[in-house]
Amino acid sequence: MKSEKISRNTAARAPTLEDVARVSGLSSMTVSRALNTPQRVRPDTVARVMEAVRATGYIPNMLAGGLASKRSKLIAVAVPQINNSMFADTIQAISDELSARGYHMLLCVAGYTHESETEIVAAILSRRPDGVVLTGIHHSPELKKTLLNANIPVVEIWDLTPTPLDMLVGFSHEKIGDAIGQFLLTKGLSRIGMIWTEDRRAAQRKQGMLDRLRQQGQPRIDEVVIPLPATLSLGRQSAQKLFSLKREFDVLVCSSDTLAQGAIMEAEYHGLRVPDDLAVIGFGDLDFAADNKPAITTVRVDRWQIGKEAATLLADKLAGENIDTPIRDIGFSLVERESA
């Protein structure tokens, strides 16, 4: 590489692609290809270009570079929260897979209301992303119309329906609830306390569980509904509220592992042995669930696979490939451990 330095007059302005070409000793066309489609350029050439980019301080203008191809190389990903560990693996998998395919992820927090999701997605569409990942399948009519007009690929995640907007990677929350209900019936657990968040997907799991239980009679259920996000502290507080009812519970069913962990701590504080005196069930199989004492019985969903498949569907569609299976049901498994 030429050991050329940018002059004082040149440094006073923003470095250009031509500056990178001069410093790298390559043509502007080669530099452009290395920045926009690195997978099609020799690795040593890409490394040479990136060294020149660092030396000059050049910032690639991906929007300007994409005008001719109508590609921004950005994929917008909307999740309800970023302080919810349930979504962390999915987000990371999307980012990793998109990066490997030459795209960048634009992450935004859409909240849990139709209004907030519609507003944030409309804002990010002004950035002209090549595709969008949305969490869930329930969206406002305004957002659906906006996405239709944008005419870009969309993948919905973390839910299941036969009629997605475009493509879908998820699982059935109703079936998860049904499986939990069947598990309770099999174990003979009928004095049920529930600690549940108020989001739509948790409500679907709850309804699936209640439908299964009511097929076998009317179980006794007491419930504490809490706001998002679910925390260990809220799990403890909610368990305390249930215990204050002075009823005997044989199981606490929680809408997340985090709440289940808090419930276990509060049960032990009250002198209850888990699972001998009280069973506890969570959801998500988060990183700590298997190592908790006692280990938490929960429902496992492959959060990483959701992100990987969502990103792959988008990248494949943008590459012009035929998508034979636009709906991917990744399923789930109920993991029985010490707590139940």
What is the general shape? elongated
So, the CATH homologous superfamily of the largest domain? Response regulator
Report the strand count. Answer: 12
Overall structural domain count: 3
Question: Which topology of the largest domain does CATH recognise?
Answer: Rossmann fold
- Percentage of residues in DSSP E strands: 15-25%
Strands of the largest sheet, in order across it?
Answer: 2-1-3-4-5-11
Low-confidence stretches: 2-11
Top CATH class of the largest domain: Alpha Beta
Assign the structural class, choosing from mainly alpha, mainly beta, alpha/beta, alpha+beta, or little secondary structure.
alpha/beta
Output the radius of gyration: 25 Å
Largest sheet: 6 strands, parallel
Keywords: DNA-binding, Transcription, Transcription regulation
Organism: Musicola paradisiaca (strain Ech703)
InterPro entries: HTH_LacI, LacI/GalR-like_sensor, Lambda_DNA-bd_dom_sf, Peripla_BP_I
GO molecular function: DNA-binding transcription factor activity; transcription cis-regulatory region binding
Topology:
Elements: H1 8-11, H2 17-24, H3 28-36, H4 43-56, H5 62-65, E1 74-79, H6 88-100, E2 104-109, H7 114-125, E3 131-135, H8 141-150, E4 154-157, E5 167-170, H9 173-187, E6 191-197, H10 200-214, E7 220-226, H11 232-243, E8 251-254, H12 257-269, E9 279-281, E10 298-300, H13 303-318, E11 327-329, E12 333-335
Parallel strand pairs: 1-2, 1-3, 3-4, 4-5, 5-11, 6-7, 6-8, 8-9
Antiparallel strand pairs: 10-12
Helix pairs in contact: 2-3, 2-4, 6-13, 7-8, 9-10, 11-12
